[in-house]
Amino acid sequence: MISWNLYSRGDKIFSIVVSLLIGMFTIATLYPFIYIAAVSFSSGFAAQAGKVVLTPIQLTTEAYKYILVQPEFWISYRNTFIYTIGGTILSLLFIIPAAYALSRPQLIGRRYFNLFIAFTMWFNAGLIPFYLNMRDLNLLDSMFGIILAFAVNAFNIILLRNFFESLPQSFEEAARMDGANDFQILWKVFIPLSKPAIATITLFCIVARWNGFFWAMVLLQSEDKIPLQVFLRHTLATLSDDDEFAMTQLEAAYSAETVTAAIIVCSVIPVLLVYPWIQKYFEKGILLGGVKE
Amino acid sequence: MTSVILDKVAKSYGNLEVVHNIDLTIESQEFVVLVGPSGCGKSTTLRMIAGLEEISGGTVSIDSRVVNRVAPKDRDVAMVFQNYALYPHLNVANNIAFGLRIRRTPKDEIAKTVADVAAILGLTDYLDRRPSDLSGGQRQRVAMGRAIVRRPKVFLFDEPLSNLDAKLRTQMRAEIKQLHKRLDVTSVYVTHDQVEAMTLADRIVVMNDGYIEQIGSPMDLFMNPVSTFVAGFIGSPPMNQMQGVVSGTPSGKQVMIGDAAFAIPDNISVSDGQQVVVGVRPEHFSMTPDDGSPAIPISLNLVEPLGSEALLHATIAGQPVIIKAETNGDIKHLSGISQVYAPRNLVKIFDAESGVVITGQHGS
Amino acid sequence: MNTGSDKRHVTTVTTTRKRTLKQKLIWLGDHFRNEWQIYLMLLPTIIWMILFLYKPMYGLQIAFKDYSIFRGVANSPWAGLEHFETLFTNDQFIRAFWNTIKISFLNLLFGFPAPIILALMFNEVMNATYKKTAQTIVYLPHFISSVIIAGIVITAFSPSVGIVNTVLGWLGIDSIYFLTKPEWFRPIFVGTGIWQEAGFGSIVFLAAIAGVSPSLYESAVVDGASRWQMMWKITLPSILPTILIMLIIRIGNVMEVSFELIILLYQPATYETADVVNTFVYRQGLQSGRYDFAAAAGLFNAVVAFVLVMIANTLSRRYSRTSLW
Description:
The complex is a heterotrimer of chains A (293), B (364) and C (325).
Chain A: H1 9-40, H2 44-48, H3 62-68, H4 71-103, H5 110-122, H6 127-136, H7 143-149, H8 154-166, H9 169-177, H10 182-193, H11 195-211, H12 214-219, H13 228-239, H14 243-252, H15 256-285
Chain B: E1 4-13, E2 16-26, E3 31-35, H1 42-50, E4 57-62, E5 65-66, E6 77-80, H2 92-102, H3 107-121, H4 136-148, E7 154-158, H5 166-183, E8 186-191, H6 194-200, E9 203-208, E10 211-216, H7 218-223, H8 228-233, E11 240-249, E12 252-257, E13 260-263, E14 275-280, E15 295-297, E16 299-305, E17 309-316, E18 319-326, E19 339-341, E20 348-351
Parallel strand pairs in B: 3-8, 3-9, 6-7, 7-8
Antiparallel strand pairs in B: 1-2, 1-4, 4-5, 9-10, 11-12, 11-14, 12-13, 14-20, 15-19, 16-17, 17-18
Helix pairs in contact in B: 2-3, 2-4, 3-4
Chain C: H1 21-59, H2 72-75, H3 82-88, H4 91-111, H5 113-124, H6 128-139, H7 146-157, H8 163-170, H9 182-210, H10 214-222, H11 227-252, H12 259-265, H13 271-274, H14 277-287, H15 291-320
């Protein structure tokens, strides 16, 4: 890149204007989070009066106290961890060996296997047959069902397969001549060499699991199995028109809005904690998938 | 004591045959170099010996055992790859030990063997380093260490020096040769660099278009190329090749290139008026008429000094030639040269159409 | 000595090395003996796909049946095209279909250029720390669940407490209950999409920009071009292939509106503009139990989507040498 000192006056003005626009967009992206955090720490009265703009008004943690004493909140939080960790591990157990096999030129019918897997990205039976299939498999209202039924994703397989194919062939050949079998090659050579790609896929799995909402809502009935997102949804839907809640909030210094905001904050915090750690991977990882030379 | 025998070995991809009926016997402890331009099938041949490519036809035997259907790991061969294939996540010691670990060799034995190999290759101080922290030459040594640690029956080298710079290449070339002397293991080495082939090989196999052009010792190939292809491939600069016509004179046979006459050995079976290619190595031209060969007029275009020698870029009857001449520390005297001599016994004659050499007793 | 050259004169006898059946079987036996592990590695995924993705495709036949829970997919009586006839005369479905198209079109019109503009702008930012920080922040919403996004939108647009109405109040405008107003649904939905995805979407374009040879810019500087001119004359044309591919992908995904967010944001008052095919399927099938009818709607959606994806892939192959998968 050309050094700033060599910019003409016009270029400098242009660059500064663009930087300011970027700054505005960044603030616009960030603002809703700040706003929600501010609401969550404000009193119900202040929030209801629409006074919260940037910082908490009448600072209080009542909304959090209201949430954190609810056992359902903790159960759903725990469930989300189970779904996220279990689901991600299961996904990797499916995806990594499959991607390895599909990257091997010696696999007979490789083209057809690839087509078999890719086809599921282009054509989807849709909600109803999937739901009925889950019922036929006896996986309704089952934690294991949720973990298993969303374990594999064609896009992730193809992404990792592309990465494996991009590794120099000689790594595999050298290991093979050293006497390694395919499981050893995968475990001792390919997986260590593919850390960025596997990290990316792990990230995609974790994010999908952590945020998974629709199917958990549809498939799970028991209160003790629902993940955080479904709990959040229930709370959002019931808080505002819950008469009993409306009665209590005047004295309690929290409102439907501050409680909602508090739940949102609780749900986003884990994402924010892992986000910087994963960020370095996904920029590279996103480019591994789909579009292939 | 391991020989490698290729019997009518062929390789095809679909309907495209890339290696055709190769016959080659590599003796025990011999160092054989497969050389040829890219795409000539030399790497494919090596990979068939290694077991990395399926053999489409014929048989490969290692130690009198046909290995066509034997997995690479069971052939007891080791290979050094062009890009070294060093595992970036393992340090030098673990890279070298990889094959032993896979084969579940006892730990103390692994440690001892790795130490021995590291000592041979001068890697003892680098065992804890990752490949990314090594120089090109050190990586090359680790790659060789990984091959020799298993004490295989056959070493295979796939252009192992092509990623090194010129100076390092010369040095590693010497190390490979010393290593071979020390370990005495049958070795097959693939390269496109004829200098490497000449310096390393007991025997060179020149390949072209999936066929073997010639097999012979380095000096044999240099002095007696069987075809214009080999003549043009071996030697640096390669043999000069000029189109000419045979004509008999009272003093013996000669080939006319324009007005220039090249005396040729009398027993060569050519007839008057035959179109041939005359081959003379740049270093075989002489400035003095040692054996009574006729003077050949040249028109000199350029003198390239190399130090003790110089390359004269000239034309003989319009056809370009390169002549290597001694400088004796000065090139001034070379710029005036207008004629050279080609000693009769060093002149090679090839058939103009097929490029095959025409020899004395038994013409082909 | 071995002369190979003369072999070239023997005009190559076409050496077709056709294997006999026996040789083929031996070869296959060797192959599976040596390579069985990779088939074992692939097997779980294949079984999973059959069980969870292909079996439902078989189950799609209920779109042509009178589905009864008790009889199951295979044993329910055929109904021919009855459900499709009902479907195409159903005002709600037709509305949902056009809503899908309209929302997708708006997404394309406003949502597609946003990440490109953002990437071009990021490319002009000189301060590396500033750029990195801004990127970190604008990628973030991509990782936030739709429930939370919906929660934020609902809170921010709430008539009593929402910041949007608070600001409108400062300007002397009466508060609007945005989420009950059909005319506001699409702008809010599309705007939310841009807020959530523009940053993350810019990654692909930034990578394309990073691939542009610096010497192009250097020679332009020598020629006296301004940054503005370079953006138009170098950067944009250089990333045009990427833009084209991403556009084709977008067109292929027209039928895939993120219905999760719609389910969370719409209400009967806004069905008029917000209801899309998938939300329609969800209500008819999973909420009202009309499985066969809803499956028919879903099948129609899936077939249209499949055709669009196939067209997109063909276009992409033609224009860019690259296939999308």
